[in-house]
Amino acid sequence: MEWKTELAELVKTDGNAPTSRLRFDEPMDKHVFFGIGGLAAAYFEVSTVHELAAIAKLKKSWNLPVATIGRGSNLLVSDNGYRGIVLRLVKEFDQLEFDGECVSVGGGVSLPRLSKVSARQGLSGIEFALGIPGSVGGALIMNAGAWGSSFGDVVERVRVMTDKGEVIEISHDKARFAYRRSGLRNYFSVTGAVLRLTPGDAKIITDRMNELYNKKISTQPFAEENAGCIFKNPPNDSAGRLIDACGLKGHRIGGAEVSKIHGNFILNIDNATAEDVLSLVQHIQACVKRTTGVALQIEVKMLGFEDE
Ligand SMILES: Cc1cc2nc3c(=O)[nH]c(=O)nc-3n(C[C@H](O)[C@H](O)[C@H](O)COP(=O)(O)OP(=O)(O)OC[C@H]3O[C@@H](n4cnc5c(N)ncnc54)[C@H](O)[C@@H]3O)c2cc1C
After folding, report:
1. Which ligand 1 atom is nearest residue 74's CA?
2. N or C: which end of the chain has fewer CB within 10 A?
3. pLDDT of residue 1
4. Domains and CATH numbers, the chain
């Protein structure tokens, strides 16, 4: 049996016909904010821990590449696509449950939803995330953050699935959160977390959340397709400032353009390819290095490139 047949069977045996949740040769451009990317050999919206464990086993037995993605808001997919299975966590992974100051949240929950619901509950700590269009899983992997706060700051425990298909909980310290990264990439998938928030006044928290959101949308591009900040900020500096200082705002290669609003964003303004984006990335890195001596590191994650 081929792995695709086994995958389709696996969905069927769970009582669901392999319809819309499982697709073969799926265009990835419609699953990522950049609107760029070739075909994934398979795309599967995973509903249960049981299904996810079965995919972990499938990966092992067929030696297949498998990647869990979130909302695709920090992802550049190759023009050649991805030769394995792309997973997105839905249903069982898209739930949150409050218990006093703690919230248990699934990896598929969107950050804006988490931010808004927490504020309504009178819980502070996650206000910064209303303007970050990712999922909890993506935020844990990336240690997403803004305005001096990072997701890892509020994490007490993380739930991950191992290569053997077992869900285990790991402590905050073991998750090794650092600036825009964590040690969670080594697990098969990140399925959720328990966050500890700080009680406060719901109105004050909501006002603060809205204030940060409005500040963000007035200084960063939200209308065009992009993947957030393309480079990490170097220590004690800002990548956007360096790119601006090199006169690169508005610079264009193919359909990709450096935002005129914020230099650290690359926009897909006219059917850009991943090649266009990477050429622009290299051009920016070379100019910034030549002019300022700083080597900018890419923040956006890559999928389907040979040297991943
Ligand atoms: C307009 C805009 C503004 C943004 N602003 C910010 C900002 O202020 N601060 C900030 O930090 N980021 C920002 N981002 C980037 C992005 O939203 C964050 O990095 C976010 O955390 C990514 O989440 P995601 O679910 O979209 O992850 P994806 O982009 O889907 O994936 C990112 C990486 O995480 C992996 N991954 C995702 N989910 C899982 C999972 N469950 N298990 C295992 N691996 C997983 C993927 O394989 C990939 O390697 C912005 C993006 C946009 C488009």
Report:
1. 29
2. N
3. 72
4. 3-91 (3.30.43.10), 94-218 (3.30.465.10), 221-303 (3.90.78.10)
